[in-house]
Amino acid sequence: MSAYNTVIFDLDGTIIDSFPGIQHSFEVAYEKALSKPCSIDIKSLIGPPIGDIFKKVTQIEDAVMVNAFVQEFQMQYDTEGYKHSVIYEGYDEVFRYLMDMGMDLYIATYKRDLPTRLILAEKDMEKYFQGVYTVDMHGERFPNKSAMVEELLLKNGLNPDNCLFIGDTLHDCIASKENNIKFAFASFGYGSMEDAEIVLKKPLDLLKFI
Q1: What is d(CA 165, CA 150) in angstroms, rounded to the nearest whole number?
Q2: What is the pLDDT of residues 144-177, one digit of tens each?
Q3: Using the 8-state DSSP alphabet, how is residue 43 labeled?
Q4: Residue 159 CB: number of other CB atoms within 10 A?
Q5: Strand ranges (DSSP E) for the chain?
Q6: DSSP 85
Q7: Between the CA of residue 169 and those of 29, 100, 124, 140, what are the distances in Å?
Q8: Mean pLDDT across the stretch 29-35?
Q9: Which domains are delineated in the chain?
Q10: What are all long-range contacts of 31-36, with beta carbons under 8 Å and residues at least 24 apart?
């Protein structure tokens, strides 16, 4: 019998490869903001809010310019970029297996609510999840992912001891640890981690640890 009855998933880099759409939207917004082409590959930076990524690669702190970039990026991504997301191979089998075991599945993503819902609808994934938590689901942003996961646990009456969190970045690991949840690192995603206790090289590896 599994030690877990609940599995919480990050989205970008964990369930889906959204990089092609994010990179395209970033390049369009970057060129409009700075009037020059973008040649920066942001794959290794994905995780934090897109405005923070823009500031990191440009060293620009001007709030007006950063906000203009973010608005342009969001418009591009919400109309076209999200469509380029690809589900990592094996997840349909993983989700069906976990549901057959009677587990509850959740998403906790620092992605905005609108593109998250668009992607889940387009990929027909809504049916798998008891709840979807996004960075701006209440209008205002969660201050960090730890706070989001804390609310997910409280609102659904979940015992952290019975939960497993799957993510691909240090932010996911921190959110897990600060909420006393076991963490599994999706090494096929965007981040890197040297000391993860559970490492998944592909989605189907998750079934070995359930």
Answers
A1: 12
A2: 999 999 999 999 999 999 999 999 999 999 999 9
A3: G
A4: 11
A5: 6-9, 16-17, 86-87, 104-109, 131-134, 163-167, 182-186, 198-200
A6: -
A7: 24, 28, 25, 23
A8: 94
A9: 6-17+85-208 (3.40.50.1000), 19-83 (1.10.150)
A10: 32/68, 32/69, 32/72, 33/65, 33/68, 33/69, 33/72, 34/58
Rounded Cα distance between 12 and 42, Å, is: 13
What distance in Å separates the CA atoms of residue 167 and residue 156, rounded to the nearest whole number? 20
Annotate 19-37 with DSSP letters as a single string.
HHHHHHHHHHHHHHHHSS-
CA gap 152, 131 in Å, rounded: 8
How many Cα atoms occupy the beta-carbon half-sphere of 73 within 13 Å? Answer: 22
Q: Closest Cα partner for 183 from 1, 4, 2?
A: 4
What integer pLDDT is reported at residue 75 of this predicted model?
Answer: 96
Is residue 163 within 8 A of residue 181, CB to CB? The reply is yes
Two tokens, residue 109: 């993503």
Bridge partners of residue 6, in order along the sequence: 104, 163
**Taking a C-beta distance cutoff of 8 angstroms, is the pair 94, 207 a contact?**
yes
